[in-house]
Amino acid sequence: MKIGVYVCHCGGNISEVVNIKEVMAFAEKQGDVVMVKDHAHVCSDVGRNMVIEDIKVQGLDKVVVAACSPQFHGKTFMATVDKAGLNPYVMEMANIREQCSWPHYSLPEMATQKAKDIIHMAIAKVRLDEPLARKTSPIGKRVLVVGAGIAGIQAALDLGDAEFKVYLVEKEASIGGKMVKLARTFPTEDCAACILSPKMADVPANSNIELMTNAEIEEVKGYLGNYDITVLKRPRYVDIDKCTACNDCTDVCPVVVPNEHDEGLTSRKAIYIANPIAVPHAYILDDKSCLGLFPLACTKCFDACEPGAINYDEKPQRLHFTVDTIIVATGYDIFDAREKKVYNFGPAENIITALDMERMIVHEAEGSPIRDIGKRIAFIQCVGSRDEQAGNEYCSRICCMYATKLSQLMKRADPKRDVYVFYTDLRAYGKGFEEYYKRAANTGVKFVRGRVAELFEDPVTKKVLLKAEDTLSRQIIESEFDLVVLSVGMQPGEGTKKIADQLHLIKSPGGFLQEAHPKFRPVDTLTDGVFICGCAQGPKDIPDTVAQASAAAARAIRLMNKGEYEVDPITAIVDEDLCCGCGTCVSVCPYDAIKTEMRADKRVAKVNEILCQGCGSCSAACPSGASQQHWFRTHQLRAMITAALGQEES
Amino acid sequence: MSDAKDFAFTLTGLRIPYFPGCTLKTTAQNFESSAVAAARALGIELVELPRWNCCGTVFSLAADDLIHHVASIRNLIRVQEMNRQGLVDGENRMVTLCSMCYNTMKRANLRVRQNAEDIKKINDLMYREEDYQGNVRVIHFLELLREIGMGKVKRAVKKDLAGLKVAPYYGCMILRPKEASIDDPEAPTVLGEVLRALGTDVVVTPYNKVCCGSYQTVHDKDAVAGLAYDILGHARKSGAEAIATTCPLCAFNLDNRQKEVAEKHPDFEHMPVFYITQLMALAFGVDQGVLRFDQNYVDPVPLLKKHSLLDK
User: Fold this and answer.
1) Nearest Cα residue in chain A from B239
2) Which of A17, A11, A8 is nearest to A106 (CA)?
3) What is the pLDDT of residue A72?
4) What ipTM is given for this predicted complex?
5) What is the CATH number of the domain that holds B34?
6) If 0-12 CB within 10 Å is exposed, 13-18 middle and 19+ buried, where does residue A518 land?
7) Which of B234, B236, B241 to mutate to test the interface with A (most CBs of A within 10 A)?
8) What is the extent of the structural domain holding B201?
9) Candidates B175, B181, B186, B211, partner chain A, best to mutate (most A CBs within 10 A)
10) pTM of the model
């Protein structure tokens, strides 16, 4: 056996802490090691060619790269040894950066010792590594997109245009998500509905997209290339194809309830159209508020509908189909301002949320104001964001700019208005944002750095007394406002929580979905074939959401376009002689990859290698040691432990 | 509380160790006399701690502060003794009326219970006392009311206070910090629940937890008067005729400082400030001698007469 060890300096990241010479001298003394070299960047072209040359010329049959985490460059070096004709699985990475030089930068001597131990372990394991064969599996061109806000719409359109079959599932009656409610978009002040509606209209026009509204994912089974989806389609009671959106049904409906599209500031009927630019452009009967459905007591809308589009007998439908990949675009909910009790939201009539404000501006611009906005208006930033008391440590990223937008829209509509924005830090981080903020300040919007302490409603005038500290001038501010707008943050939507459970997706500390790598795999998840985009992944604005949606579509296309994909051979394997069929592994498997089945005379566990993600849970849980994991077999791990303890394998 | 044997026969329920503190024996005797009588009407005997000492007055925030908690802990040793001697009904609890005493002792107790070393040091210092075992619970009278249930409070009402418009005022000592809070620190309701059970019209204002000025009252009367003007003025605008509280310092700042408020604001209308227990005693129909309105700065008698709530 000829093992080559390559120690990387990582441009100082490692070599400034770990004594490379000492580590190399240690590695040279290990059995089977025939060559030890170092390089400033082993991952560079020069570095990798050095490894390839050595394999070819010196006839190395095992390689250890002592550098960064295998999460980071594992794939790089697997490809390197592959290119030199070695099996990718006889290469080991010894992580002496993330697990050594970075955390122990203050203790160079101990770090050097630890680096030796880590390399010692990698050498012990690589001796026992065996070539593993990569398999391929066929894959089709069908994608499920969950959620049809701007993220889901963009992803579906990109995929549809690239001739992939898309199933687009939306729980609301219309697509468009939260964006459809906005007045304008920062920093360009495009009318949100005007830029969104053409995209919404493109969805039904695209023959590759099958749109399901008023529908939710009920069950997901299977794996990459073979996901079995069950969708529950709730009854709409209106035939989309027959409905001409003439409004006759709404005119006669006697039921009046709050209108969700206007955040409850206006009312709608029980039979209604979700919003003026709704897609599908058809009415829906809200069976929770309709008086006459169960039992059928009122048929006013049915009688009024000339095309005969209304069908009270429609039942929920279960739709089944198979897809190859899934894109999750389930979006966000706004923070419930009632939870922030100091701000008195709910009982006080002049304390509203920014989304309320968006709707009020839309109605004001249309010449039919919902209510008087008043002359003195204050925005309070970071409501439910950057607030550990509210349980949300993260910044919601959009609030600074939407407050900048709303405040100057109001100021421009009526220059006599006094508009204040009380902020924690003003984060104008995006392209054109700083300029936009300056423009707002020049318009006369007053930006005050200071978190608002409390709001009090005057019991008689209903005006709001605001108390805050201007932390720049160190003044205590007590001032009365006609209207206070809470700039509420984002939090993961109910749909995001549900789909995370269904697809076994990992969540970040804030509850948003976790990407596979924050920098290099920002729209992948750790489940193969499942991609995330938009605010389901984390708070972001519309440009970032659209960029991410297109990225998710591209990543899905990359996987499906070849018609087959490589399956990682690091999966569980079961020694059927040892297996007693107890099923412990079945219960711990997070991917439903293991089943028990009858074999000759007994029940044994069987691993689906496509579903198996190689997490190792079954191997750890198996009481008889029958379940093992390729590349991490018990004897390999034992050799590493022995090496870590400074002993040689006996 | 010296006549403990006199009402032994009236007991229907709980005998619980009770810590009065200095103020209730001096400027807030009206709080104690009304609370003891109101509790008795609910079947609760507040059994005063023998040989109690200062609660510690203010919870210390100094880094090396253990000595400041000795006074609090010594009182808790009294509670242990009372439980062992069978003077009270088990459970190792101690109730306070004064919000400040509650806060100081609750937090001192929480603090030493988190650290066995602290308890040991304090026990070693007080070597003539028995050791504090660390399992007494400090509770506030309002928590006790919540525990027995507002339904029971309501059933004890003989003459409900219908028509009397009262704004609850919490102050900070029973709400903050969070770990010592008896209620939601941002939106407390417990005083309102009691007042509602008594039949009053409860006036909730967001000023019900705004700072009363606390000890600033000693050297900056004007600042405290300013705060009192805001709090009382807002209550008045919201339709309240009176304030109800459980903190003697809040009561002093809202009640006695009305003198300074009236000097600064000629249009200011005085507003009575009650201890919640005075209103309880009134509603429970006990001997009105315990109300001790002579200790209230703003005389509540005209208001109560207006609502025909006084005997004479």
Assistant:
1) A459
2) A17
3) 87
4) 0.76
5) 1.20.1050.140
6) exposed
7) B234
8) 158-306
9) B186
10) 0.82
Q: Across chain A, what does the average pLDDT equal?
A: 94
Whether residue B5 lies inside any domain: the answer is no
For residue A76, which amino acid is it? T
> What are the tens digits of pLDDT across the range B56-94?
988 887 878 889 999 999 999 999 999 999 999 988 999
Parallel, antiparallel or unpaired: strands A351-353 and A3-8: unpaired
Are residues B137 and B32 part of one domain? Answer: yes
Nearest to B237 among A341, A455, A458 (CB): A458
Owning domain of residue A444:
333-491
Closest CA to B273 of B290, B248, B298, B237: B298
CA atoms within 13 A on the CB side of B26: 6
B206–A456: do the CB atoms touch at under 8 Å?
yes
The verdict on A342 and A457 lying in the same domain is: yes
Distance from CA of A454 to the nearest CA of B (A): 9
Angstrom distance (rounded) from CA B267 to CA B264:
9
pLDDT digit string, tens, across residues B92-119: 999 999 999 999 999 999 999 998 999 9
C-beta atoms surrounding A245 within 10 Å: 15
Confirm whether B245 is domain-assigned: yes
Nearest CA in chain B to A462: B238
Q: Which of B186, B238, B239 is nearest residue A342 as measured by Cβ atoms?
A: B186
Asked whether residue A506 is assigned to any structural domain, the reply reads: yes
Residue B170 domain-assigned (yes or no): yes
Does one domain contain both A159 and A186?
Answer: yes
Residues A327 and A351 in one domain: no
Residue to substitute from A383, A456, A478, interface B, most B β-carbons within 10 A: A456
Q: Are residues B34 and B162 in the same domain?
A: no
Minimum CA–CA partner of B188 in chain A: A341
Strand A62-67, strand A325-328: pairing: unpaired
- Give pLDDT tens digits for A106-133: 999 999 999 999 999 999 999 999 999 9
What pLDDT digit, counting tens, does each position of B36-58 carry? 999 999 999 999 999 999 999 88
Is residue A363 in a domain?
A: yes
Residues A401, A403, A405, A408, CA torsion sign: negative
In chain B, the residue whose alpha carbon lies closest to the alpha carbon of A348 is B206
Residues of chain A with Cβ-Cβ distance to B181 below 8 Å are none
Range in A153-157, A176-180, A391-395, A599-603 with the lowest mean pLDDT: A599-603
Domain boundary residue among A503, A529, A560?
Answer: A560
Interhelix angle B29-41/B276-284, rounded to 10 degrees, is: 40
How high is the pLDDT of residue B6?
Answer: 39
Task: Name the residue facing A460 among B207, B210, B237 (closest C-beta).
Answer: B237
Average pLDDT of the segment spanning A311-340: 96
Are residues A321 and A367 located together in one domain of the fold? no
Nearest to A456 among B187, B207, B239 (CB): B207
Q: Domain total for chain A?
A: 5
pLDDT at B8: 38
Residue B57 identity: T
Do A543 and A620 share a domain, yes or no?
no
Considering the domain architecture, whether residues A353 and A407 belong to the same structural domain is answered as: yes
Q: State which of B115, B142, B169 marks the end of a domain.
A: B142
B203 belongs to a structural domain: yes
